[in-house]
Design goal:
The protein is α+β, with helices and mostly antiparallel strands. It has 12 helices and 20 strands. The structure holds flavin-adenine dinucleotide. The site of flavin-adenine dinucleotide has 40 residues, from helix 1, strand 9 and helix 12.
Length: about 425
């Protein structure tokens, strides 16, 4: 038996790293277990290979791309740094108030809009075009330090070579400085129970079996929580989930392209309450475009000649809770395709984007619409169904804390919400440990 921890956290994305950091600040003995390594992404297109390998571009049975991270810091390492606070209405539904935690997290992550020179001229052109059409586009908030960020870099999704973007590594590394143990390349496979309570985890690292023991176990592995929970008989986990379906729409505007502009630094949330859609300029780089063009059909591959000329905008939607996670299927670990309502939402967004791109100067013939994909797997272990309002499962002392507990699809950037949930859970864990 290895040393007993107060808290074992499985997964180092925003939810897990926050719990590790918060509990280590409270002088608790913390173990953070991460199945991936600590890849330092290069911030250039060659690192795309690393991204594909470690940030799991995974295909659903229906061949929709879904991103499943496997790296220290989780998907936050490849995020665009777009900052949106936890949506109040979604959490009101389950009786949770995250306002204090969100305010604290926003201040720590340095959330703010960026100066115009970092936003970039293509983004500003798209914003003006949209507003000329009567839409309400604004500069959006980011968790990016403008003093470290460089105009024209725009490599947020390749790991931010300048270290300007907040990622969960910031909190994971702070946890280690505070005394937490971090084990990488170690995959948790099972929870150990005694008298109905969670007391530890079984893990595997390069074929070596390991066991770790702790008073509280927090699963923050996203979709991977499902396999661990089902082994405990929590079969409702992963029987439906959300991926926040998105579609990239690109057009060629002479003299412009979004590849050198900050992704998601402008855009609009004006259709969110009415239609569940948001629109933000961002377009995949050449390597991702190749994958997406192939998935759309070989006849679209010649369009890659414009790979460095596209100006692109993404529509992202609140998708319906459908599909299923198959934790033990290595080829197609999900089934998820847009429902009729999802398609209507996506189509509405695509129509608006076409208008904006054309107004900004893109000929209709240059417009390319990629297939739907899903960047934010979430809501597979929902509050009120798989976990309670304290994020505890029906196995005592076993919690989930990450995007999987969201009560519904957010259709919004998730990081700020996951960090806020991590802060809230940490208060609950501390109270419990003090009274135990
Ligand atoms: C390309 C891209 C861009 C994005 N841009 C933004 C953005 O601009 N703003 C925003 O807010 N959000 C963005 N997101 C979404 C956001 O990054 C994720 O929603 C967020 O990281 C989810 O956090 P999480 O806490 O659920 O953990 P995740 O980030 O999902 O991390 C989970 C971690 O757990 C580990 N793990 C899983 N299972 C195990 C196991 N059994 N044992 C050990 N470790 C395990 C994984 O390796 C992973 O590191 C983006 C996502 C992608 C893919």
């Amino acid at each position: 038996m290895e040393r007993e921890y107060d808290v074992i956290v499985v997964g180092s994305g925003p939810g897990g790293a926050t719990v590790a950091r918060e509990m280590s600040r409270r002088k608790r003995r913390v173990l953070l277990i991460e199945r991936g390594g600590n890849w330092k992404l290069l911030g250039n297109t060659l690192s795309m290979a690393m991204v594909l390998k470690n940030f799991g571009l995974t295909l659903s049975r229906e061949l929709n791309v879904v991103v499943v991270p496997k790296n220290f810091g989780g998907a936050s390492v490849v995020s665009c740094g777009a900052a949106v606070p936890p949506p109040k209405a979604v959490f009101d539904e389950v009786g949770i108030d995250l306002s204090r935690e969100a305010a604290e997290a926003g201040a720590e992550m340095g959330v703010d809009v960026l100066p115009d020179e970092l936003v970039g001229k293509t983004n500003m052109r798209l914003l003006e075009a949209a507003n000329d059409l009567g839409y309400n586009w604004v500069k959006t908030e980011k968790f990016i330090n403008p003093d470290l960020c460089e105009p024209g870099c725009a490599d947020c999704m390749l790991g931010c070579p300048k270290g300007a973007k907040w990622t969960a590594r910031v909190y994971g590394e702070e946890a280690v400085r505070n005394g937490a143990d971090l084990v990488l390349r170690t995959t948790v496979t099972e929870v150990i129970r005694e008298s109905g309570k969670a007391i530890g985890v079984k893990a595997s690292s390069f074929g070596r079996k390991r066991e770790f023991f702790g008073k509280r176990i927090v699963l923050s592995g996203g979709t991977a929580n499902v396999g661990i929970l089902r082994r405990l008989g929590i079969d409702e986990a992963g029987t439906s989930f959300a991926v926040d379906f998105l579609q990239f729409v690109g057009g060629v505007i002479p003299g412009m392209n979004t590849t050198h502009d900050q992704p998601m630094a402008v855009g609009t949330f004006e259709h969110y309450d009415s239609d569940g859609i948001i629109l933000l300029p961002v377009f995949p780089n050449w390597a991702m475009q190749s994958v997406m063009a192939l998935l759309k059909g070989p006849q679209h591959v010649p369009r890659l000649k414009d790979a460095f000329r596209f100006s692109g905008i993404m529509v992202k939607i609140r998708d319906e809770l459908k599909g299923e996670i198959y934790p033990h299927n290595p080829v197609f670990p999900f089934s998820k395709e847009p429902t009729e309502q999802d398609r209507k939402r996506l189509n509405k967004g695509v129509d608006i984007i076409r208008k904006v791109l054309k107004k900004a100067g893109a000929p209709e013939s240059s417009i390319l619409v990629f297939n739907p994909s899903g960047a934010h797997p979430s809501a597979s272990c929902r509050i009120g169904e798989v976990v309670d309002r304290n994020l505890q499962t029906r196995v005592k002392n076993l919690y989930c804390c990450d995007a999987s507990v969201l009560p519904a699809s957010l259709g919004l950037p998730v990081v700020w919400t996951a960090v806020s949930l991590g802060k809230r859970l940490s208060k609950h864990l501390e109270e419990g440990l003090q009274t135990a």
